[in-house]
Each structure stands twice: as C-alpha cells, then as structure tokens.
Write a structure and sequence with these properties.
Layout: E1 3-7, H1 11-22, E2 26-30, E3 42-45, E4 48-51, E5 57-58, H2 63-70, E6 77-78, E7 85-89, E8 92-95, E9 100-101, E10 104-105, H3 125-133, H4 135-149, H5 159-162, H6 164-171, H7 177-187, E11 195-198, H8 203-212, E12 217-218, E13 231-232, E14 235-236, E15 239-242, H9 246-253, H10 258-265, E16 269-278, E17 290-293, E18 301-306, H11 307-311, E19 320-325, H12 338-353, E20 361-372, H13 378-388, E21 393-395, H14 405-424
Parallel strand pairs: 1-2, 1-15, 2-12, 7-17, 15-21
Antiparallel strand pairs: 3-4, 5-11, 6-11, 7-8, 9-10, 13-14, 16-19, 16-20, 17-18, 18-19
Helix pairs in contact: 1-8, 1-14, 3-4, 6-7, 9-10, 10-13
Length: 426
C-alpha cells in the first residue's frame, strides 16, 4: 500500500487526501494549526454561524456541488436571492454592469482604433482595459472586482492567468476587447445561480471531509522542512503532497530544493481582513447584494457584502455586513488591534451606505498571505515550479489554476491523480 503525506489541511489538502484514501493509499495529513480548513473558517457570532474567510463558491462549476452531493450535503446548498451588487464611487452607489467578465463590460463604448494584440503575449488586466475602455472602467468596474477575487489591483493581475478564455479570444483575432468578452460570455451555456454557499457555513463541508479522513489528520503538526527521501516528523512516506500556501512551501523547501523554493516564493500573496458586523434589526440596508468600492476613494474597505440581502434572511438572520479590507501591497490596517479595525470598517460603512448604528456584535479575522496574486508572468512561474519539482513530490493549492474553492478542488483532484499516475508508472 502506497503511503502518502499531505502537508496542509485546507480544502486543497483535504480533497487530495480524500481522493488518495479512496484510491487505497495510506494517507497522513499534517496540519500546522489546531483546526482543518485553512482559509475556510466558520465562527459563531450572535447565535449564528458566519464565514470568516471564503463564504461562497462558483456554482456554475461542478466541483463543490459534486463534492457536497457525495458527502450528503446537497440539500444544504443555498443560493443568493437575486439582488445585484453596486459600486461605490465619489459619494454615490451605481449598479454594477450586468454583462461583464471580471468587471470588464461586454457592452461599453470602446476606443475606435483597431485592437493591437500580439498573440501569446501577457499584460495586466488594468493595462488592457485602460487602453481600450479608459481609466474609469478600470477604477469603477475591474479594480473593485479584482479587489474581491484576488485582493489586488487590476494592474497587478495577469490577463493570461486570470482570464485564459479571454486571452484565447484575443489570440484568435477578436476585433475588440468588448467583442472578446461578449464571445466568452456567449460560450457559457450554464444556467441557474452563479454562486452558492453552505447554509451553516463552510464548517459543514469541513466537518464532512474530516469525518471521511478520521484518524488520518494530525493537527498542531507543522512540517518545518522537506528533505529528499520523504521522512516527516519521524515517519517515512512513498510520496508527499504539498498543499500549503506558496510562502510556506518556499520556507519548507528552501534548504533541500532551493530552485523550487525560489520559483514558488516569487508568487506574491495579499494580506486581507474580514470584519463581520451584526447590526440591530431596525437597520435598513440598500437594496443590493453588496457594494464594491471603486479605486481612489477615501475608504479603507474594498467591499461590503450585505449578507442578509444577498443570501436571504432565513440563512443569515439580522442585518449582517461583511466588510473586506486589504489588498496586495496595501495591508497596514491588519497590524492595528481588533477594535481599531472594527472602527475603520464602521466609519467606511457610514461613508458608503450611511449606516451609523452600533453593531450588536462584531468580529475580525486577519488573513496574512490570504490570497495568491496571479501577476503578469504567472504562467512562466508555474512552468518553473513544474521543472523544479522532484519526483515523488506533488504540489497543489490556490496558486495554480484559480483561487476559488471550486478551482482548488479541481486542482486537488488532479494532484491526487498525479500521485496515482506516478505510482502506476513506478
Ligand atoms: C478573505 C478571503 C475570502 C475568500 N472568499 C472566497 C469566496 O467567497 N469564494 C471562493 O471560492 N474562494 C474564496 N477565497 C479563496 C479560497 O478560500 C482559498 O483560495 C482556498 O480556501 C485556499 O485553500 P488551500 O487549501 O489551497 O490553502 P489554505 O486554505 O491556505 O490551506 C493551507 C493549509 O496548510 C497549512 N500549513 C501551512 N504551512 C504548513 C506546514 N509547514 N505544515 C503543515 N501545515 C501547513 C495551513 O495552516 C492551512 O491550513 C477567499 C480567500 C480569502 C483569504
């Protein structure tokens, strides 16, 4: 029986471990903290469960839905009730464009000069959109969206890594950027809600995964260093899966695999914080699912999710607002104490939405190195990582093929396949 060590019990490590266990391997998961889940974390606040990290998933991809069904959780998936988000800019709230791809609108007025595009090239989404649609579209549509997904500015995110389908349309000779966006949107045949969430938070999924892996997960078991031969904390393994964030992978591999450590360590990650505010029942919030903040505003917050309005009152009782703060290179706010961060979140909520009520409860969650950022050249860095990965070691995580939970599950399942393929190949 093949023995495999999985380092990291976030969603990537848990899913890899589950698939390997189902394939007959003896799996041990080493987790440095005292809990499973990594960036998935639910907490109790004012009698209800709220997610303090990721709160949703893309429902139009199959991975989370399939896993939930396999684990008997299909009936626990909820969808947004249908309100749209708004953008806060210069003192006002504006509806977010309906037909858009990562904030790039399909219907905006574009400069009339022909699109100059060198097939195969890579640029930041900010540079591409600014050239065709102007700075305002970057600041009011693309930046606010990328602030949420990647915790980064549009100028820091690679077109080719973040939106490969759009890059392919441009490579194929699209006549304009908006035509390329329209073509990508038109290819999607998926219907139904775009997003989903677990009724009682991601903890439901984590509990179900941990139950499947009972006896195989070691908590408070950090792996400080990885050496060839695969002896970890006193045990020998045939194979190792590294499912830790890139900065941790760089630390663990620094001595024995310096080339790999350099390549992985070059991937930046953004620090962010989530402040959850439960407001008194009397507070009325605007009729949006959330509010994204445009660039160059005086606010520190980058987004407000109006959770009760988004998911419906039966899943999130009481007006609850989730305030997101921090972006790549802009994260000093995380070093403040909890009360100061809550004060900043409340002041921003007053500026953007006019809400002055004192919250019934409030909680702060800091995420250092929370989200890996796919800066231009990201795909070259992944190729370097692939070339520097020694036999017997497989890497997975949010820095490979999408930061979302669904993408992490897909990559984790592929990582398990790679472990098994390598076994078959001897
Ligand atoms: C604030 C925030 C909001 C988000 N919102 C969403 C959302 O709404 N929808 C969505 O789809 N995605 C969202 N994401 C992204 C998504 O949550 C993450 O990309 C995903 O959960 C990452 O999972 P992972 O398993 O790859 O990494 P992680 O969750 O980082 O797990 C890695 C694990 O490895 C452990 N570890 C690290 N070093 C070691 C070591 N040396 N030894 C042992 N263990 C180690 C860590 O403790 C951790 O448990 C969000 C992310 C953040 C930060």
């Amino acid at each position: 029986m093949m023995t495999v060590a999985v380092i990291g019990a976030g969603i990537s490590g848990l899913v890899t471990a589950l698939r390997l266990k189902q394939a007959g391997c003896r799996v041990t998961v080493f987790e440095s903290s005292d809990r499973v889940g990594g960036k998935l974390r639910s907490a109790r606040l004012d009698g209800m469960t709220v997610d303090m990290g990721a709160e949703a998933f893309v429902r139009r991809r199959p991975e989370v839905m399939d896993l939930a069904a396999e684990l008997g959780l299909a009936d626990d998936i909820v969808s947004p009730v249908g309100r749209r988000p708004a953008v806060y800019a210069d003192g006002g709230l504006y509806p977010f464009p309906a037909r858009q791809l990562m904030g790039i609108p399909a219907d905006a007025h574009e400069v009339s000069v022909p699109l100059a595009w060198a097939p195969g090239s890579d640029v930041s989404l900010g540079a591409l959109v600014r050239e065709r649609l102007g700075d305002e579209v970057v600041g009011r549509c693309v930046d606010p969206m990328l602030g949420g997904v990647y915790s980064a500015h549009a100028d820091d995110v690679s077109l080719r890594a973040a939106l490969p389908a759009l890059a392919a349309e441009l490579d194929a000779g699209a006549t304009s950027l908006t035509a390329a966006v329209g073509a990508v949107l038109a290819r999607s045949t998926a219907t139904g809600p775009v997003f989903g969430a677990f009724r009682s938070g991601y903890q439901e999924l984590l509990d179900a995964l941990a139950a499947q892996l009972e006896g195989a997960i070691l908590l408070n078991a950090p792996v400080p260093e990885l050496r060839p031969g695969w002896m970890l904390r006193g045990w020998w393994f045939d194979k190792v899966v590294l499912a830790a964030p890139p900065q941790q992978v760089a630390r663990i591999t620094r001595t024995s695999f310096p080339q790999l450590a350099r390549a992985v360590g070059a991937i930046p990650a953004a620090n962010s914080a989530i402040v959850t505010l439960v407001l008194p029942d009397t507070v009325a919030l605007p009729d949006y699912s959330g509010v994204l903040v445009a660039s160059r505003q005086v606010l520190t917050a980058k987004a407000f999710t109006l959770s009760t309005q988004k998911w419906g009152a039966d899943t999130r009782p009481g007006p609850t607002v989730r305030v997101s703060l921090g972006r790549l290179g802009v994260s000093r706010i995380l070093d403040e104490d909890d009360q100061s961060i809550i004060d900043v979140a409340r002041a921003d909520l007053e500026t953007a939405l006019g809400v002055t009520a004192v919250p019934v409860s409030a909680a702060v969650q800091r995420w250092y190195e929370g989200i890996p950022v796919y800066t231009p050249g990201h795909l070259d860095r992944l190729a370097e990582i692939e070339a520097a990965t020694p036999p017997g070691l497989v890497l997975t995580g949010a820095y490979f093929d999408g930061v979302g939970v669904a993408a992490c599950i897909a990559h984790a399942e592929a990582a398990a396949e790679r472990v098994l393929e390598r076994q078959a190949a001897g």
